[in-house]
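Quick look at the format.
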Amino acid sequence: MYVCEICGYEYDPAAGDPDNGISPGTKFEDIPDGWVCPTCGVGKDQFVSA
């Protein structure tokens, strides 16, 4: 689980982010660098492992 430090959105690798092109089962480190938080729009660098 990875959490956005800005808004608290939780990225669950098991669920992915299919609405934004990230398939279920995608590890956080395998998400493309251009992906942004679907809630607040910040980049991957604003996420921390939970």
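Next, a different chain entirely:
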Amino acid sequence: MENSQSKWGILYCPKGNGNKQRERLQRVLDERHVAYDFVQSESMDSVERLVTMLINNGYKTIIIVGGDSALNDAVNCLMKTEKQVRDEIALGVIPHGVMNDFARYWDFKEGETEKTVDWLIKHRVRKVDLGCIRYTNKQGEQCHRYFLNCVNVGMIADVMNLRRQARSLLGSRKLSFIVSIFLMIFHRMDYKMYLRINSDTINRKVMTMCIGSGPGYGQTPSAVPYNGMLDVSVIYHPELLQFFAGLWLLLTGRFLNHRSVHPYRTREVVVEEAKHALVGVDGRLLGKPVGPFQISVEQEVINFLIPD
């Protein structure tokens, strides 16, 4: 019988008709004679516990069936282990979440289960970067959180918060996102920020800022998750018509062309002040850090399974 080192440890994060999707995935795995063990998350809070369990039980290939937030939990678990242990583990993804931005960067697409599993079987590994935000929480504790995709400060993090609140009332993920975008028209759209990026100092009102090691949900489209750099988009407060024009450019992949968008490439961003601005990390709300915080990058620290 094969031990855990030669099996895939698969963490399944259900959404919608979870049983149907799980059965399809298991059928594809069985047809290809993949040795695996399945665990399923009961809630968002259980992902880190289950990934830690897979690591501690010696699985060398860990596959996340979920979105960006679940991947974020997985990399943060991996970064808590010793480097020697982490270097022996390969992390893969089968996209199955509301936001699958990091998976899409590598051309993994939700619903293409057979194609994705075939790619993962080939076990092609690429070392990828992680961004890291270091901050002080409300209890005065020094904290840090790693990210594969991006950190959002300001309006986009506010949208995440509104979406979470709307979802608790409406139930539907897609409907809650649409409602939250609509509510933003009547919501605060600028924040007093004091930023240091490379040799530049920004001390003014900013609508939102995205710091991306990855594509940043279209806000850092030129970011590369293996060059040891962060792409930063600082968006000043546009007029209402410009705001909708910016949304159109975001949807059509031309976001950096908007005149309110100011792009940078750097190794570190220092946020000296971001009054009243919420912070989101890989699609999940972090809240409001107390005082200054820093975002930096660590180059090629995670083994990630990529396509041909």
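The mean pLDDT is 86.

See the schema section for token definitions.
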